[in-house]
Design brief:
Shape: globular
Structural class: alpha/beta
Number of strands: 16
Distance between the termini: 24 Å
CATH class of the largest domain: Alpha Beta
CATH topology of the largest domain: TIM Barrel
Strand content: 5-15%
Helix content: 40-55%
Strand order of the largest sheet: 1-8-7-3-4-5-6-2
Number of helices: 23
Radius of gyration: 23 Å
Number of domains: 3
Length: 555
Amino acid sequence: MSLRGVGASQGVGHGPVFVLTAEVPEPPEGATYTGDADQEKARARAALDEVAGVLEGRGRQAGGAAEDVLNAQAMMARDPGLLVGVEALIDHGTAAERAVYEAFGRYRSMLVGTGGYMGERAADLDDVRDRTVALLTGHPMHGVPLDAPEPFVLVARDLAPADTALLSKEVVTAFVTERGGPTSHTAILARAMGVPAVVACAGATSLAPGTLVLVDGSTGEVRVGPTDAEVAGATGAEAARQEKLAAVRGPGRTADGHSVPLLANVGGPGDLDAALAHGAEGVGLFRTEFLFLGRKAAPTQDEQVAAYRPVLEAFPGATVVVRTLDAGADKPLAFLPAREREPNPALGERGLRMSRRFPEVLADQLAALERAVAGTAARLHVMAPMVATAEEAAWFTEACRTAGLAAAGVMIEIPAAAIRARDLAEHVDFFSIGTNDLAQYLFAADREMAELSALHDAWQPALLDLVAAAAGAGRPCGVCGEAAADPALACVLVGLGATALSMSASALPAVRAALAGHTTEQCRLAAAAARSAKDAATARQAARAHLPGLADLAL
């Protein structure tokens, strides 16, 4: 018997199932309190602050990508807008635990409605809510065992960062969730740990605790009750694959010597060790929003310089691509108030649109970047998120030039920008394609909905058409979405004209080996075959027919 989901982190893992099913009960609707409203507010504030402290403490213990994720989650607990909502409900007589539940529920609905990166943070918000309600009601929070007698496969409806941050591949051999997508925090942390993961796997939590399973993070298959021979075969093949991947070293290039720089996606200095260990040639996406989330005022230039400089110093002579603050309706910040509640925040004022409303915040960030790169040997490239038109691209480039920054580019994550990329190319120095959001907007499909995961398959021919349009517009064009982490698709992206690929650090060896095993012409033929297909599955199959080296590498 097998279950099928979406492979989110490559590799093979096996072991007994540990099912994380405990949930904090919903506080009764209409629950009230006796006593003083100020005391009830103080109780709520204290619980939220304690939860934030616990999350930050776990982040410090975990370090790396997990620390960035948990710090962002702690910021949710300290979000002033959420606290205002909680206190308003308390003023109307609602008990603190119910006020937290309702205020977080309203915010959750907004996040889910936005889709995209923040839409996938709903599980993180639920975790903060549950931890706070548990503190206020005295209900225990059941977690993942860190001292299990043997490694296990962690199965859950969804996983919050606090559930996984302190785990290691010595404790957990794979993750399987019923919800989520390839850009959820489960997937991000699994890739950072180098642990296989399958998401959107229906029926996973119905498995009995202790059931032996074999998880394939590449195919998305979860085999229930595998035989010893099946486990030995799968693990042996995975070990052989890793040995072959490790044998390919050096900069990214095709078999005929065509250079394709392989870069890492990072969220801050905590991700540098993994990037360097896996041979990243630079940074293709430095997400800066973690520095801004949950604050009442924007970080100072000095704070920003301190966060940016270590990343720039880590890659002397290499390219470091920094994305400016991607904030707005879907990532509300207290110091960047929205005009009004937007009926569809995913289509509202976010990214560059918000920067144009608050140019002083962008100007401070650009000035901080100019200061941070001074004295380093890094080649700093700065790009704007959510750019739709040539006029927006020109405005951003002018802002960069004013700040003394030489290389200005834009994210291609809105279909209009891909279709008219040649117009944008007149005003910028480079493009970077964000395939995650580009797919969401192209197919009108929320990234958070497991039921729509097929539309987020980066092999969709329509998505490849947009990549080709942007890559053929006459500017250096990298890909920083998770599509670049698929070894076969990485070859196709190069065939479409991508000039650099950026991904989670753990994906770099497989992509490096896949490119080294094929010529540029093979990549072009694979790309043409994929675009000629009618659906994602056929596109994948058609491309692989031109990429025989993948089979030799067991990719």
